[in-house]
Amino acid sequence: MRVPDADWPGVRLEQLCRAALSVAEPAGLTSICASRVVNHRPRGLVWSSGKRARRLDDLQLVLGEGPGIDAVIEGGPVLVPDLLQNWRHGWVTFDRAAVELGVRSVCAFPLQIGAVRLGVLTLHGTEPASLDAAQLSQELAVCDDLSVALLVADAGSGEWGSVLEAALDPPLAVTSQAAGMVMVQLESTIAEAMARLCAHAFGAGLTLEEVSRSVVGRTLRFQPDQFYPDLDDPRPPSRN
User: Fold this and answer.
1) Which residue in 75, 80, 122, 157 is a FRET match for 146, CA 20 to 30 A apart?
2) Greater model confidence, 83 or 117
3) Inter-helix orientation angle 51-63/190-204, to 10°
């Protein structure tokens, strides 16, 4: 699907996202977010239609689960007509947290070229909703165009030197910096540092970027876990 009245070389990412949203709106999916993907997780917002879409994207990053992540891992669409129907097992927290954001239906599409995963497109609605066969076909066509647009900044221009442009956009850069600082604070691995950042963001009701900026701005510091003896344990504490 091509955006009406637009020549292919001049198509922008925002125009393609709006085209995807216009296809889905009649079905009840009224919000959209497109993100780059790093290590099978949404990392780096490309475009969103509003605050709820951004929070849903961040929620999947923080929790490490959700339809967007599954779509990237599986390499195909993940369609959730109603999150309250408990249709899919394996999401420990996402369903409840998404519903608390006001989300009831989600459709996620991987943005990929061959086996290369470039990003993820997530549509959602505040009521149960699903795409019919024609709408699904149109969304897949838009996703093909979005995948190329992500790979080349000016889609179709042939300027392949810009492939890695903005690969480390500001939100991703500040998160990476914060994770490095937390790793030093905790004397831990980078994976543990990221896990602590995500857990703090979810527990405080903040985005990962907000928490990361607090760490980088030195208004938030993480402390190593402290372990205390069990007072009911009759054994003497170890002196090793």
Assistant:
1) 80
2) 83
3) 140
Name the residue with higher pLDDT: 49 or 165.
Answer: 49
**Residue 13's closest CA among 49, 53, 47?**
47
Q: In this structure, which topology does domain 170-216 adopt according to CATH?
A: Arc Repressor Mutant, subunit A (1.10.10)
Fold designation for 8-161: Beta-Lactamase (3.30.450)
pLDDT mean over 172-179:
72
Q: Identical fold at 8-161 and 170-216?
A: no
Asked if residues 118 and 42 have their Cβ atoms less than 8 Å apart, the reply is no
Residue 44 belongs to what H/E stretch?
Answer: strand 41-48
Distance CA 21, CA 161 (A): 30
Cα 35–chain centre separation: 6
pLDDT value at position 68?
A: 92
What confidence tens digit (pLDDT) does each residue in 44-75 have?
788 899 999 999 998 888 888 999 999 998 88
Partnered with residue 178 across adjacent β-strands are none
Q: What is the dihedral of CA 159, 163, 169, 173, to 10 degrees?
A: -140
- Torsion sign (Cα): 184, 186, 188, 194: negative
Domain ranges across the chain: 8-161, 170-216
C-alpha dist (Å) from residue 90 to 70, 86, 120, 128, 180: 10, 10, 20, 21, 30
d(CA 44, CA 33): 11
